[in-house]
Each structure stands twice: as structure tokens, then as C-alpha cells.
Write a structure and sequence with these properties.
The protein has 250 residues and is α/β, with parallel strands linked by helices. The chain has a domain of 171 residues: Rossmann fold, CATH 3.40.50.300. Helices cover 38% and strands 25% of the residues. The strands form two sheets. A six-stranded mixed β-sheet has the order 6-7-8-3-9-10, sandwiched between helices. A hairpin with a 2-residue loop joins strand 9 and strand 10. Helix 3 packs parallel to helix 5 and helix 4 packs across helix 5. It starts with 7 loop residues before the first strand and ends with a helix. Belongs to the ABC transporter superfamily. It catalyses: a polar amino acid(out) + ATP + H2O = a polar amino acid(in) + ADP + phosphate + H(+). It comes from Rhodoglobus vestalii. This is ABC-type polar-amino-acid transporter.
């Protein structure tokens, strides 16, 4: 395990999850430290997205515990709403409000949840849109933007809540190939800036460049976790070796 300077921010302890007969998370235990970038990789159906969604309780768990910043994940109600304000989420599909401008999409959460004034929210949103390279699109509607631009808006919207951690669930998988890098570049910069991130991704180049640690999942289990260089050059488990041999040769 790599040495971590940050304190534990997310602690997943012996978590299990079933969908009917399917055991999708099998006794998952891992810790994400403050300021750490963890990239979760593995074949389809291995439980990666379910783990990501369980951390902000978009999926319930059957047993085990998840704590965020020392607090147990709330079941429901105002505690859950507060937790979700502290945990940013970026999905495959951008989930922007189609009838609101880009600026309105980014300011909605801070104004409603954090009760920030319109002027302050607008100023912060413009800074974030500038940070992700699309400040000049602020007055447009989502449909007027490319997929890559929309995903960068979704990242800015997540950052606007000043979250403790951002969860990104395959953020580039719905994008055309030429748009993937513009989103990955933003994510690499966030990692450099010290944002705590859990990223489910098929982008091995991003994992190598930006991750502090790679979690390799298969069949609902964390099969291996290691620093990227170690994982990609010397995977320990036959399952990881097989997975990498398939994807790195294409």
C-alpha cells in the first residue's frame, strides 16, 4: 500500500450488495485518503459503478459500513442531503438541466443548498467555468454544447458545491473520442490541485498519469490495489494480468 499523507476521508468497511441473486459487491473494504486520487478499473459488471454509487447512497448496501469524514452514511432525510452536498458526483450522462443556462446549472446547487447569494454564486461559477475552459459558454443552453463541453460543465457544477470528494462514474464513456482528452485534461488538473477523487474509468492513460492508487475490481471484489506504475508494469493477480493483457495490446 502506498504511504498516504492525508487522513482517511472515505472508509468502506466490509460492504456487501446484492441485486436479487446477483452478489455485486463482495465484502469490499478500502479507504480513500484526503487529497488522494483513486481510479477504479476492471471488466464490465465487476461492481465498479455500484461501489461509486454506494458511496453517496445512490445505491443502498446490504451490510457493512461507509463513513465519510468520520460520519456514518445516513439512511435518508436531511443528513443524506447534507452528505450529498459534500460528495460531488459526475455521471456518464451529463445530467444537466436542459431548460437552464450553463451558468444557472452551475449556480443552482450553491444557491439552493448552500444558500449563497446570486451574485456570489455567479462569480464563483464563472471562475469554475473558466477553470474548466468554457467561461465563454455561460449563457448558452446545454443542447448548444458538445458532449465534452457538457461534461466539463458537470464537473464545474460538482466543484461549485465545494465538495470534500468528487466521484466520477465513467465520465468519458459517453463521449466521442476527440472529446475525451478535453475532459481528462480537466480531471488531471483537478488531481494536481489536490482534489480528492474516486474515478471509475476505462482510460488507462489517465489512471497512469493522475492516480495515486489503482483499485482493480472483478466479479464484485477488489482483486488488487497498488500504485499505478506497479499495477501496470507488474500486476500480481492472474485476473489483473489477463485484463491488462487484453486491453493494453489493442
Amino acid at each position: 500500500m502506498p504511504a498516504q499523507s492525508g487522513e482517511p476521508l472515505v472508509v468502506v468497511d466490509h460492504v456487501n450488495k446484492h441485486f436479487g441473486e446477483l452478489h455485486v459487491l463482495k465484502d469490499i473494504t478500502t479507504t480513500i485518503h484526503r487529497g488522494e486520487v483513486v481510479v477504479v478499473i476492471g471488466p464490465s459488471g465487476s461492481g465498479k459503478s455500484t461501489l461509486c454509487r454506494a458511496i453517496n447512497r445512490l445505491e443502498t448496501i446490504d451490510d457493512g459500513t461507509i463513513t465519510i469524514d468520520g460520519k456514518l452514511l445516513p439512511e435518508e432525510g436531511s443528513g443524506l442531503a447534507k452528505l450529498r452536498a459534500d460528495v460531488g458526483m459526475v455521471f456518464q450522462s451529463f445530467n444537466l438541466f436542459a431548460h437552464k443556462t450553463i451558468l444557472e446549472n452551475v449556480t443552482l446547487g450553491p444557491r439552493r443548498v448552500r444558500k449563497i447569494s446570486k451574485a456570489e454564486a455567479d462569480k464563483h461559477a464563472m471562475e469554475l467555468l473558466d477553470r474548466v475552459g468554457i467561461a465563454n459558454q455561460a449563457s448558452k443552453m446545454p443542447a448548444q454544447l458538445s458532449g465534452g463541453q457538457q461534461q466539463r460543465v458537470a464537473i464545474a457544477r460538482s466543484l461549485a458545491m465545494d465538495p470534500k470528494i468528487i466521484l466520477l462514474d465513467e465520465p468519458t464513456s459517453a463521449l466521442d473520442p476527440e472529446m475525451i482528452n478535453e475532459v481528462l485534461d480537466v480531471m488531471v488538473q483537478l488531481a494536481k490541485d489536490g482534489m480528492t477523487m474516486l474515478v471509475v474509468s476505462h482510460e488507462m492513460g489517465f489512471a497512469r498519469k493522475a492516480a495515486d492508487r489503482v483499485l482493480f475490481m472483478a466479479d464484485g471484489e477488489i482483486v488488487e490495489e497498488a500504485e499505478p506504475e506497479q499495477f501496470f508494469t507488474n500486476p500480481q493477480s492472474p485476473r489483473a494480468q489477463d485484463f491488462l493483457s487484453k486491453i493494453l495490446t489493442h
